[in-house]
Design brief:
It is a single chain. The protein is an alpha/beta fold. The protein has eight helices and seven strands, in the order αααβαβαβαβαβαββ. It has helices at 10-20, 25-35, 46-59, 73-79, 97-108, 121-126, 145-155, 181-194, and strands at 63-67, 87-92, 114-118, 133-138, 156-165, 199-204, 210-215. It has a seven-stranded mixed β-sheet, with helices on both faces. Helix 3 (46-59) runs parallel beside helix 4. It is globular. The N and C termini lie far apart (35 Å). Keywords: Methyltransferase, S-adenosyl-L-methionine, Transferase.
């Protein structure tokens, strides 16, 4: 027994996946195709995708916003749990991986629920309606995380859920004097959220660190 979060070695992580992961064959194929790309490290962990899908169910989300979509794995996980009239807006920049995302969404029969907007995310967010989203997932350029927080708080409804990925940043958040703007931004976000009375807060050691913020 322990009163702190376990450090998962390969064997224990494999056990976790073996007894709990319910990844569909389509998601498994998407993850395998993504693993062959040079930017494969951008892919979220499969157990994180499953957890986020459950959050969609638990919150009854009908409108989801994703900032940073890559090959579409996280979007596919979440969109699958939306009601038939649910909608998801995904923000990303143009890249070869956009076609992969669209191909898998189409194969899953979910392309009609997902709108992919290819432009700088802050430009896309500026044109969206205040309080119009139930769940927002942020997994894009880390240097803009503080700015994404402010936009997410504007766009989420009261009681809505905001998720930030990579908040443990492979341990780089422990660096005393980082010279990397991404690391600095994540450190700044984490410290700011600790005392931000606009949200309820929980940081979880899922994947590379996942912070859940409920807008008060």
């Amino acid at each position: 027994m322990t009163n702190r979060t376990l450090n998962l070695d390969d064997a224990l992580y494999g056990y976790l996946l073996g007894v709990s992961l319910r990844e569909t064959p389509l998601l498994e194929r998407l993850r395998a195709e993504t693993a062959a790309l040079p930017m494969a490290r951008w892919q979220i962990a499969p157990e994180q995708g499953q957890f986020m899908a459950m959050l969609v169910k638990l919150t009854g989300a009908r409108r989801i916003l994703e900032v940073g979509t890559f090959t579409g794995y996280s979007a596919l996980c979440m969109a699958a749990e939306l009601p038939d009239d649910g909608q998801m807006i995904c923000c990303d920049l143009p890249g070869d991986y956009n076609a992969i995302a669209r191909r898998y969404w189409q194969e899953a029969g979910l392309a009609g629920r997902i709108e992919l907007r290819l432009a700088p995310a802050l430009d896309t967010l500026a044109g969206l309606q205040d309080g119009s989203f139930d769940l927002i997932f942020i997994d894009a350029d880390k240097a803009n995380y503080p700015a994404y927080l402010e936009e997410a708080l504007r766009l989420a409804r009261t009681g809505g859920l905001i998720l930030f990925d990579n908040v443990l940043w492979s341990g780089r958040v422990l660096e005393a004097q980082p010279d990397d703007p991404d690391t600095c931004a994540i450190q700044a976000l984490n410290l700011a959220l600790k005392d931000d009375q606009r949200v309820d807060l929980s940081m979880l050691p899922v994947g590379d660190g996942l912070t859940l913020c409920r807008k008060r």
